[in-house]
Amino acid sequence: MKKILTAVIxxxxxxxxxxxxxxxxxxxxxxxxxxxxxxxxxxRVNLNPGYAAVFPPLLDTIFNNYNTFxxxxxxxxxxxxxxxxxxxxxGSFWYVPTISYSxxxxxxxxxxxxxxxxxxxxxxxxxxxxxxxxxxxxxxSGYLGNIGGIVSSDTKLKSSITLIPITFGITxxxxxxREILNTFRVGVETxxxxxxxxxxxxxxxxxxxxxxxxxxxxxxxxxxxxxxPTKEWPVKPYIDISLFEIGYYVRSAIPGVYDDMxxxxxxxxxxxxxxxxSIPAWHSLPSWINYVSAIRFSLFPRIGFSLRF
Length: 309
Prior knowledge:
Elements: H1 2-21, E1 41-46, H2 55-64, H3 66-73, H4 81-85, E2 88-106, E3 109-126, H5 128-138, E4 155-174, E5 180-198, E6 205-226, E7 236-251, H6 254-269, H7 288-293, E8 295-299, E9 303-308
Antiparallel strand pairs: 1-2, 1-9, 2-3, 3-4, 4-5, 5-6, 6-7, 7-8, 7-9
């Protein structure tokens, strides 16, 4: 019992001494002259734009290779071919790199707080001339009984989605030089979607803004590579690379965004074609969709740098 008590006292004295003098900035340094917070603060900048850089160009690829895409997926969209081929699409994105602050509460344990912004826009346009041509070409088939002159303006659908992730996590540093990062994180994602439509036949314009929130838990595996391990600088630079992140949405914002987009597409096609006839409402999908869509997985989610000071 006396030995155990002695060991506990020695451990606490060593622990307090470490915190009183800070953590050496260099992995190869033996100095012990730092203030209590020196070497424990880390600012990380993640330059990966995330989802924002994926979906706009993905839709662009689909529209530019529509027939190939339909053939590969096996979808039966032949009755929509002329309409979809007449649509002009333009996508774009912007983002603010995710910035996080970490505080080492132990040489191998840190707590973090992070925030960033991602935004993507999708613009669909069916010109007045193309819409008129579509109507005139379908009169003989009996699908539409009006003439193309009823189209008074372009038909438009503009959608933008802005994602604001706020994260809280704890990181365990492994490896000889604390270069392996195991981060367990809780994230709160605020998702703001704006959808604007204009119907070229009726002239009806709609605008809708929806705010959804998603909450997830995840695990991220990565590395933090010290650039100058033998230099004893006040600020030490690192390169950060994560291999993957896997998690699960306790509360997902995807159903709300899906239904908003479906409603926008319905207005976009109104008067010409019922585009939503082949797009089911979220609540009518199989229940397993809720679980699959709640899975969060990404490869190389973090590519950036960090500064320890």
